[in-house]
């Protein structure tokens, strides 16, 4: 077997330009429309309504549907379908994203790979326009595809952070990009809120208004992905991973993954961070994906009220991400993330006690969520980038992304099971506190300086 080392050494000074950093950040803007409008606000309650139409076609308004759906012979409560769908998408992602990361590290044009994955996910998101009546099965399939492509494209995207930003700049660059994402997602949500509030005067049914909002998120994702793809198009692969000529793409990728699993024990602090991230990010993702369901079913808010809620979260998160980036520049990203985890625990406890129908109190909870949400996620990304071995950025970010958006399989499964056992979403949301506490305790054990040195990376001024 002939083996050659394919190393395309780029000049960091050429890649780490403001132009590249600005173009890179636009992918947060592009995909946040799907995450916000579809993933956070609309799809869970809408999928639940489609399933309710199928399971209880004669259900009167205000009545509870006690019938079960049957999926491959397994009984599933109507209210648990959405969190279970996220769980399935997560399990599929956890397997597939590892291969995506290995392929991206071997790909000569990672930006084109980013675009292809993003546009496939955007197509699935756009096809959600055709969900209506009792067609929840198609909804499940499209959610799985869109979430998988979102995670896969973000593997490639996150890995590029190491290419376009110096270690001392990554907290700032990551936070600004995340803030841009919240701003973009919020702007589209404003437009969708207008449609949902004025659908009758526009000559639309309420269902059509929701379907058009789902379509807009997919189109937004597709169109704005052009900016990073064009702006970063000259970046080439720089992997130092050996390429086995006779193994082919699949064989070489499997071989690379086998080698990586064998070597990963050399980076104990990277692994410890990933374990911590698995827990506290599962808590974050479960809160994000279940907030609309909790607000609808437990607190009695309608879709318009939930849209306003998420809109508040989006715009507050824009400033929250920038603020957390500023704080990290003073005390370090690790301490800032730990502080954010403590805040998350308090916010979830607060949400548990919100009275049914108390929309003003719910908005206070939304402000608190927005303050802490963007900062913890943006800084987790930049913090992890310091621990990634040089030359295997995409592959290691695939581990990270398997525990990121849409991969809260412990959290969403615990949420769904708790609801099915108790019949209430309040204890289901409260169970996420366990994930924050465990994740925070594990994160305290990560010694960043040692991990950065073990990965062979340049030490930043402050971590």
UniProtKB/TrEMBL annotation:
One of its GO terms (molecular function) is transmembrane transporter activity. It is found in: Cell membrane. The chain crosses the membrane at residues 81-104, 111-130, 136-157, 177-196, 208-230, 274-294, 306-329, 336-353, 359-379, 399-419, 425-443. One of its GO terms (cellular component) is plasma membrane. It is a multi-pass membrane protein. InterPro entries: Atg22-like, ATG22/LtaA_families, MFS_dom, MFS_trans_sf. It comes from the Bacteria. SUPFAM superfamilies: MFS general substrate transporter. It holds the Pfam family ATG22. Its main location: membrane. Residues 269-463 form the Major facilitator superfamily (MFS) profile domain. Keywords: Membrane, Transmembrane, Transmembrane helix, Transport. PANTHER family: AUTOPHAGY-RELATED PROTEIN 22 (PTHR23519:SF1). This is UMF1 family MFS transporter.
